[in-house]
Specification:
Layout (H helix, E strand, L loop, with lengths): L9 E2 L8 E2 L13 E2 L12 H8 E2 L7 E7 L5 E6 L4 E3 L18 E7 L5 E5 L2 E5 L4 E4 L6 E4 L5 E7 L7 E3 L7 E3 L8 E7 L10 E7 L5 E2 L4 E2 L3 E8 L7 E5 L6 E5 L4 E4 L6 E4 L4 E8 L8 E2 L7
Parallel strand pairs: 3-5
Antiparallel strand pairs: 1-2, 4-23, 5-6, 6-13, 7-12, 8-11, 8-13, 9-10, 9-12, 11-14, 15-16, 16-17, 17-25, 18-24, 19-26, 20-23, 20-25, 21-22, 21-24
Length: 308
C-alpha cells in the first residue's frame, strides 16, 4: 500500500485522456483505473496524509464524455462515474480474468446508479429506457447485458457489488420515499436521510444505498459516528460549491485520522473504521454499503466522547 510513492505518474491506457493518476493504477486491466486493496487498522499508524489518500480516497471518476471505474477489495465494490456530456456511453464488458473477457459487466453483479448532475438523463438497460431527473436513482439487476447512459447535464454515480440473484429493475425518486429527519440546526447537523436501496424500499442481493441531504447551516453528518464490522461503506460527497471542502474522519475511534475532500470525491470506509465528516458549508452525500446482511441498523454506535 502506498508503494508507488516516488514513482512517475502513469496514464490510463485507452481512456482517451492524458490525466495523470496515482501510481497504484492497475495497468493490466484498462477497465479499472485503480485498485484499492483491503487494509488492516494497524496500517493507519504512521501513515502519511498522502498514503491515506492513496488507500481510501476515490477521485477523478467524473470526466466529461467518459466512464471512470475503480475497484475496491472491500466487499468487491466497483465505484465509478459516467458523464455522457451529450453523447452516449456504454458500460464496458469485462476484460479479466481471461475466461470472462467480453462477458457483460453485470454478469454476476448488481448496480446502483444515481444522477447527481444538474439535468435529467436517460439510462437504458437491455433496451428499457428510464429517465432519471437530478437525484433520481436506478437499481440495475444482475445479468443486465447492455447499459447505456445519455444526458447533456446528467452525471451518473455508479456503485456495483457481486450478487447471487437478479431482482427487478427499479427507479427510485426522493419524492416516493419518506425521509428520516435527524439532528438539529442547534447542533449543526439537521439532515434528511433517504433510504433508496434497502429491503423496505427496493430489493437487492447485497447492495444498500441512500442519500443524505444537509439543511442550510448544517455541516456535520453521520452523528453519532459508528462502525460496521460486517460490511464496508462508501461515501460520495457532492453538491459542495467550490472552493469548499469536507473533512472526512476515519480510523479507530481512539485514533482518528482525517482526509480533506473536494466536491464529487468518494472515500472508502473499511468495516473497522469510524466514518463521519464536516464541511465548510452544507452539502449532500451518497452512502453505500455491502456485506453479509441488509439491516440498516446493524452498527456499533460510538458516543462523541469516545473519540480521540
Amino acid at each position: 500500500m502506498g508503494g508507488g510513492i516516488g514513482l512517475e505518474p502513469t496514464f490510463i491506457r485507452g481512456s482517451g485522456s492524458s490525466t495523470p493518476f496515482s501510481p497504484l493504477v492497475n495497468m493490466e486491466n484498462p477497465v479499472f483505473e485503480k485498485t484499492y486493496y483491503a487494509t488492516h487498522p494497524d496500517m493507519m499508524t504512521g501513515a502519511s496524509n498522502q498514503e491515506l489518500r492513496d488507500r481510501y480516497l476515490v477521485s477523478g471518476i467524473f470526466r466529461d464524455g467518459g466512464i471512470g471505474l475503480t475497484y475496491s477489495h472491500g466487499e468487491r465494490f466497483i465505484i465509478g462515474g459516467a458523464v455522457p456530456a451529450g453523447g452516449v456511453l456504454q458500460l464496458p464488458a469485462q476484460t479479466e480474468p481471461q475466461s470472462a473477457t467480453g462477458h457483460p459487466f453485470l454478469e454476476r453483479r448488481e448496480m446502483g446508479i444515481v444522477n447527481i448532475g444538474t439535468g435529467a438523463g436517460t439510462v437504458t438497460v437491455d433496451g428499457e429506457r428510464t429517465e432519471l431527473a437530478p437525484r433520481d436513482a436506478l437499481y440495475v439487476p444482475m445479468g443486465s447485458a447492455d447499459v447505456r447512459f445519455e444526458g447533456e447535464r446528467a452525471r451518473y454515480y455508479l456503485l456495483s457489488v457481486p450478487a447471487h440473484r437478479a431482482y427487478p429493475l427499479r427507479k427510485l425518486t426522493l419524492a416516493d420515499i419518506q425521509p428520516m429527519e435527524r439532528g438539529s440546526l442547534e447542533t449543526s447537523n439537521a439532515r434528511k436521510i433517504y433510504q433508496l436501496i434497502l429491503p423496505h424500499t427496493c430489493a437487492s442481493a447485497s447492495l444498500c444505498l441512500g442519500m443524505t441531504i444537509l439543511e442550510p447551516g448544517s455541516v456535520w453528518n453521520t452523528m453519532p459516528p459508528h462502525v460496521h464490522e460486517r460490511r464496508s461503506e462508501i461515501y460520495l460527497y457532492f453538491g459542495l460549491e467550490a472552493p469548499n471542502r469536507i473533512f472526512h474522519y476515519m480510523g479507530h475511534p481512539e485514533a482518528l485520522r482525517h482526509i480533506v475532500m473536494a466536491n464529487e470525491d468518494a472515500v472508502i470506509s473499511p468495516p473497522w473504521s469510524v466514518h463521519m465528516g464536516v464541511g465548510t458549508r452544507a452539502y449532500s452525500f451518497i452512502w453505500a454499503m455491502a456485506g453479509e446482511n441488509l439491516d440498516y441498523n446493524d452498527m456499533d454506535v460510538k458516543d462523541i466522547c469516545q473519540l480521540l
